[in-house]
């Protein structure tokens, strides 16, 4: 083995034992990470410079030519402290508040539009054309009271088994004409309800005799969609606007200075947003409600800027602090609001829809929360 080979093996062995290089890097690199001037693994009498000697000389020259470390100027603590100017933090300029947007979800589905009603009627008539003909023998025993009652009502519907598609025969010569004329009430909610109620009356007695009109037992009609509260315009009751979402708003103050808003209060240090919202609701509307806070993340926020004295800027203490109100969403399942003995100076409350709230709340206040309100 030549001297150069022995020197290369020695350098690889040193780099392989180093913690800063992997075995592959130790075989391929030409710059060792440790000085090798103190190590000699070959004969001292060699007249030709070996690889180890050349690498050691290169390292020594690099170390001698390295620039001195940079000297950073040290500034005194007194100078730094003197140059800083006092400033008013955001916690001093704003008060953090938590509010609750308490909602009552819709109890009824909304009324279908004219286009929706026409589409549903078209689908029902199309289904009658494609379905297998109705076989009454599977459902009624021949010559029984139920069979006689069914045949009587079928004649009045001109042989159409379906009860909510109007006078349309899917097996006739004009079965293709299944569209409703403009202005017709066929297929609307009221027309369908009346058809089903008329069909529900029992018109044949157990003896097989037809019952006269005066002796028929009337069918119990469903409750109307508009309640007494809707007719009277009572905005404090929860049984109104059953097909829309209601929101609880409270009135703070009296006279012209009074404003409508959602229940809100200051957030102390030991509470988080949802805890403050639950506490403020109890302090504002009483404990006679079964409520549920949907989540712990705000759904909207409202910011009022601080007011400074004339000639002062944001670096000074404000004349009146601003407010940052974070609103959480809640649901009411039972009960009613009661402002008796509330701790926030509230004088009135209302359960309003989104369109009604728009006319009551201040515009900036409403604009900050309108995106979390549903259309119905």
From TrEMBL:
Transmembrane segments: none annotated. Its main location: mitochondrion. SUPFAM superfamilies: Nudix (SSF55811). The keyword Hydrolase does not apply. It is found in: Mitochondrion. InterPro entries: NUDIX_hydrolase-like_dom_sf (IPR015797), Ribosomal_mL46 (IPR040008), Ribosomal_mL46_N (IPR021757), Ribosomal_mL46_NUDIX (IPR033650). Residues 94-230 form the Large ribosomal subunit protein mL46 N-terminal domain. Residues 63-87 are annotated as: Disordered. Belongs to the mitochondrion-specific ribosomal protein mL46 family. This is Large ribosomal subunit protein mL46. It comes from Lasiosphaeria hispida.
């Amino acid at each position: 083995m030549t001297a150069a080979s022995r020197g290369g093996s020695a350098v690889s062995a040193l780099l392989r034992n180093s913690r800063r290089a992997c075995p592959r890097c130790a075989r391929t690199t030409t710059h060792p990470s440790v000085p090798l001037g103190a190590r000699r693994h070959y004969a001292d009498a060699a007249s030709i410079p070996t690889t180890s000697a050349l690498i050691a000389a290169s390292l020594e020259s690099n170390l001698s030519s390295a620039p001195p470390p940079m000297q950073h100027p040290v500034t005194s603590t007194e100078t730094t402290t003197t140059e800083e100017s006092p400033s008013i933090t955001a916690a001093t300029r704003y008060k953090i508040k938590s509010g609750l947007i308490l909602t009552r979800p819709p109890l009824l589905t909304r009324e279908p539009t004219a286009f929706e009603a026409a589409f549903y009627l078209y689908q029902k008539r199309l289904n009658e054309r494609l379905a297998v003909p109705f076989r009454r023998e599977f459902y009624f025993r021949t010559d029984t009271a139920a069979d006689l009652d069914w045949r009587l009502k079928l004649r009045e519907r001109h042989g159409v088994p379906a009860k909510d598609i109007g006078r349309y025969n899917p097996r006739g010569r004009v079965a293709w004409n299944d569209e409703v004329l403009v202005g017709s009430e066929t297929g609307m909610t009221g027309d369908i309800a009346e058809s089903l109620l008329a069909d529900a009356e029992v018109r044949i007695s157990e003896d097989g005799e037809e019952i006269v009109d005066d002796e028929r037992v009337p069918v119990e009609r469903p409750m109307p969609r508009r309640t007494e509260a809707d007719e009277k315009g009572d905005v404090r009751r929860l049984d109104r606007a059953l097909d829309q979402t209601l929101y609880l708003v409270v009135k703070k103050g009296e006279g012209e200075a009074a404003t409508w808003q959602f229940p809100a209060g200051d957030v102390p240090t030991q509470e988080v947003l949802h805890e403050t919202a639950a506490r403020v609701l109890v302090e504002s509307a009483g404990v006679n409600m079964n409520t549920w806070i949907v989540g712990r993340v705000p759904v909207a926020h409202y910011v009022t800027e601080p007011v400074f004295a004339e000639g002062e800027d944001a670096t000074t203490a404000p004349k009146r602090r601003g407010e940052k109100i974070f609103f959480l969403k809640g649901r009411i399942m039972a009960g009613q609001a009661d402002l008796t003995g509330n701790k926030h100076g509230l004088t009135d409350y209302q359960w309003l829809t989104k369109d009604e709230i728009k006319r009551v709340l201040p515009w900036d206040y409403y604009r900050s929360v309108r995106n979390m309100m549903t259309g119905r």
